[in-house]
Design a protein that fits this description.
By secondary structure, the chain is α+β, with helices and mostly antiparallel strands. It has 4 helices and 13 strands. The model has no long low-confidence stretch (mean pLDDT about 90).
């Protein structure tokens, strides 16, 4: 007789106990690690976005690893941990907890495993989850091509492409914020 081992479904409480960046998807904790170039690019964006929020006194900028808890989605996702994010909504009752709800703008910086057909499908599925949860804009930041694709909930299949020499934005999610693409990819 063969026995089967049933692994208990992970919860948000389990996710709170994880050191480092991770997301909760289909009852599984999925660890995520940032590498040198993607982390540098995400940091550049965070610093600029943080300056904008301090200047405008509107919304909050979050660095890599901030957690956003959402009701379980059809995909099984229950959380997001974007590389950088902007949030303009109610803060959690306990500042030590995840933000309840999606980021207003999510910034995802590609790492070495985020290329190829399979990766494109996963990135598109995550954008779909963001938009279903209520995120208004998603930046798909490509450090290899040095481009930014702005996807909007209002037109999720028609991204705006920003290249070096141009100035990117995240309207309407982050009103008034502009960042030079050259600064995004400054090393």
């Amino acid at each position: 007789m063969m026995s089967t081992l049933t692994i208990p479904r992970a919860t948000l409480d389990d996710l709170y106990r994880v050191e480092g960046k991770a997301e909760l998807i289909n009852g599984r904790i999925v660890p995520m690690a940032s590498r040198h170039l993607p982390s540098t690019v995400a940091g550049n964006i965070f610093v600029d976005l943080r300056i904008h929020t301090k200047k405008t006194k509107k919304g909050r900028a979050y660095a890599d690893g901030a957690g956003f808890a959402v009701s379980e989605m059809p995909s099984g996702r229950e959380s997001f941990a974007p590389d950088t994010s902007y949030y303009d909504g109610p803060l959690p009752a306990s500042f030590m907890r995840f933000i309840e709800g999606p980021p207003t703008c999510a910034i995802e910086v590609r790492s070495e495993n985020d290329y190829g057909d399979g990766a494109e499908e996963l990135l598109a599925a995550k954008r779909t989850d963001y938009f279903l949860a209520g995120t208004l804009a998603v930046w798909d930041v490509d450090p290899q091509a040095e481009t930014i694709r702005l996807y909007l909930a209002s037109s999720p299949s028609e991204p705006t492409l920003f290249r070096r020499g141009e100035v990117a934005h995240a309207e309407p999610a982050v009103p008034g914020w502009r960042m030079s693409v050259d600064e995004v990819f400054a090393r």
